[in-house]
Amino acid sequence: MKLRASRNWLVLAAIVAVVFLVQGNFALGAAFPTKPITLVSSFGAGGGTDVTLRSLSSVFHHHFGQPAIVIDKPGGASIVAGDFLLSRKADGYTVAFLVPTGVVPEVYTYFREATYTSEDLKPVCLMSIVAFGLYVKDDSRFQTLEDLLNYGKQHPGKLAYAHNGRGHSYHLLMEMVKDRNNIETQDVPFKSGADIAMQVLGGHVDFGLSQTAGTVDSLIKAKNLRLLAVAHSERLPVAPEVPTFEELGYKFRPHYGALFVPKATPDNIVTLLREGLQKCYADKSFTSMMKRMGFIIQYAGPEVIEDYIKTEKEIIKPLLKKLGFAK
Amino acid sequence: MIEHIVNGFSLTFGLSNLLLMSLGMFIGIVVGAIPGLNSMQLIPISIPFTFWMKPHLALMFLLSEYVGSIYGGSISAILINTPGTPAAVATVIDGYPLAKQGKSGKALKMALYSSIFGDIFSTCVLIVGAVVLARIAMKFGPAEMAAVILFSLTLTATVLGKSIIKGLIAAVGGLILGVVGSDPITGTPRMMFSVYELSQGIGLVPVIMGLFAVSEVFVQLERKFTTRKIKGHLPESPKKEDQRVSLREFLSVKRSVFLGTIVGTFFGTIPGVGASASAFAAYSVAQRTSRNPEKFGNGCLEGIASVEAANNATTASALIPFLTLGIPGCATVAVLAAAFMLHGVIPGPLIFVQHGDVVYSIFIGLLFVNVLMLFEAQLGMNICRKIVTGVPTGIIFPIVFVLCATGTYSVSHSVVDVILMLGFGLMGYVMYKYEYPAAPLLISFILSPIFEQAMRQALVISHGSPMVFFRHPIALVFVILTLISLVLISFLIRR
Q1: Which of A71, A87, A112 has its CB closest to that of B189?
Q2: Measuring CA to CA, which residue among B198, B200, B449, B196 is closest to residue A113?
Q3: What is the pLDDT of residue B144?
Q4: I need a surface site. Which of A36, A159, B141, B379 has the fewest CB within 10 A?
Q5: Cβ A166–B186 below 8 Å, yes or no?
Q6: What is the pLDDT of residue A126?
Q7: What is the four-CA torsion angle of A274, A275, A279, A282, rounded to 10 degrees?
């Protein structure tokens, strides 16, 4: 009898709990978002990331019922944006767009001590894959990547190239290629892809690596710049004759961008964010805007990002160590 | 090309287009005039509103805001010693003293007319010589950039003020403040004292708002305690000719306007220099070539004219490398780049082929926008003048203070910036009390990070050899100009 009574109590408690939870869930579900969501861009205004997030924000309210505010927190190869994200409440109202260096900052401690690690972040979903390439001025003597590397071997330290920050994908891929071929070059960091294109155009550096969408794409079409190799899973429509790095035997992870929230963000909120974002990604007006600019928008769940994070720790970390960029 | 121009005309002069342009112009002037807010915040917010517009309409709307905000910045610079935008910092030097003499109308109109001249001239340059100038801009690599900035730094000597030593101390202070942030080559943090918000360096807006606006609030506060003034904030001269600019007066400063325009157009073409630096350069060029340089700083029309011609000339010429190469000439144009791309107008060498009509409608629109500015700015300045001449200081400056704080906060959504603004306000007040000029501090603060990055990039490319600054012809020219400038300064100091 006593047992039964307590069981009744238990059942009642369970019902109450379930009701509360469901209600809580429901309340949270209905209540999120009740105010605008901040999307943190990890690069400067007018850059690819900024444009992508602003385009996303233009369709955001159709699928979330609330607008999105884009703020730029450039610097530190997206660690600044990650830092900023973690300084905010873990309530799903701040979502940061981060690239690999900001996702797994513990791998890049040589360049900058971050206050957080990948363990502090919770991936929402993948946002974009950035195709980037190695390009030279159109009248350059180098016709293929091999030409360039051969010249580099014969003239150590002669070549200089522009990238967008040490420890960033463009720099790392090039350092990997250099390491494989025993080449020494100068590397010069610039602020943006447009700056890099400008330096190559002006002949101040021998070649540059940056994302191809936008400025570089139009300069290739106008025959001012010429691609030698592409860092992407497939060849680019703008230059179908140019091989990918993978075809040439250099395997590297994609330069991806993904959306993150702080680890402590409740799962039900993250699920709602994922559902809404998936709808945004499928929104015709958003996809057509992205297509016009040549950006590759791709939805993929958190498992894909976890996989990238694993690659970062297993492949990039040893590379950095070998190059002397790790403690 | 003729066909494009005709199409451009028909695209520009639609009723909806004119309405949108004047609306954009109006919003631009208002936002520019509000301390702390400028086109860097306005344009990203406006972009989503343009999604439904046709590309040429959307771009003209945004460009009207951009042009309007640059002029708007000078209204608050002249009337309340607070540059509404970074581009108007140099306008304060002569604009505010002239307004304090009761000639605010004259100052504002001088600023307007020279702005319009600078804008129209550099737009014409953009139309005629964009492709050629972009080629020249391309020649500016790190070594050239470093040399140009070094030269600009020596130009700041003209704003050093009465005491050269105090001016230099202020300038060095600015250089040091510009070093805070991340190392431009290694990306590692420095001089941040673990304040994470400083990793991008100290923001420009908190420094400007603090040094100019907040310090002026403190100065007025002190004055309020010592004298009991109930009248309007600014005196107004009853004489009519003190509130307008006669043709003869405008012609008397034509050299300053012209020099300002040339300097502004040149600096705008080189990506990364910006309107505030070009305005300072124009100011010192105008002062050095003027017949009465001693009048500069005390409400001199030539000073206002050169600065305003320069910063508006920069707006159009910053579009030169952008339209022809896809490389934004300044930070605001970088924001505009997003709008261009979203509307499918990809800037770059092919823009004239693919979107010729849009580009020419922008050109014609940019010229026409100045006509709108002539009327709308008159309206705006009269309202603003009524306010500052009618409302007592004790009411105006608390409002200015609140606007500064909210404006500063809105830039990066960070309270640290507001605290910095207050700190710089106190610093500006102390500097004012001990007669240290704020302008050299600010200009060297703006130039310091650009200079350091360019110099170190050049040295990386040259394997650490400083010869790189002498081997490149353009860099060499500017190094020589720098030396000449230094000799002239030491000559001035001795005298």
Answers
A1: A112
A2: B196
A3: 93
A4: B379
A5: yes
A6: 93
A7: 60
Q: Who's near A212: CB < 8 A, 6+ residues apart? A: A131, A132, A133, A135, A220, A227, A230, A236, A238, A294
Assembly ipTM: 0.84
Domains A30-129+256-322 and A132-231 share a fold: yes
Percent pLDDT > 70 in chain B is: 97
B325/B351 Cα distance (integer angstroms): 9
How far is A100 from chain B, CA to nearest CA, in Å? Answer: 16
Q: How far is B245 from chain A (nearest CA, A)?
A: 39
Per-residue pLDDT of B180-231, as tens digits, reads 988 888 877 788 887 767 877 898 889 999 999 999 899 888 887 776 655 6
Instruction: Give the tens place of pLDDT for each residue, A2-42.
Output: 555 566 666 665 555 555 544 444 444 457 899 999 999 88
Q: What is the fold of A30-129+256-322?
A: D-Maltodextrin-Binding Protein; domain 2 (3.40.190)
Report the candidate in B316, B389, B358, B370 with the shortest Cα–Cα distance to residue B130: B316
pTM for this predicted structure: 0.84
- Strands (E) across B252-320 are located at none
Q: Which residues contact B52 (CB under 8 A, 6 or more apart)?
A: none
- The whole-angstrom separation of Cα B398 and Cα B416 is 21
Domain A132-231 in this protein, CATH class:
alpha beta
> Which residue type is seen at B220?
Q
Nearest to residue A134, comparing CAs of A209, A188, A68?
A209
pLDDT band of B273, cuts 50, 70, 90: confident
Cβ–Cβ < 8 Å for B167, B440: yes
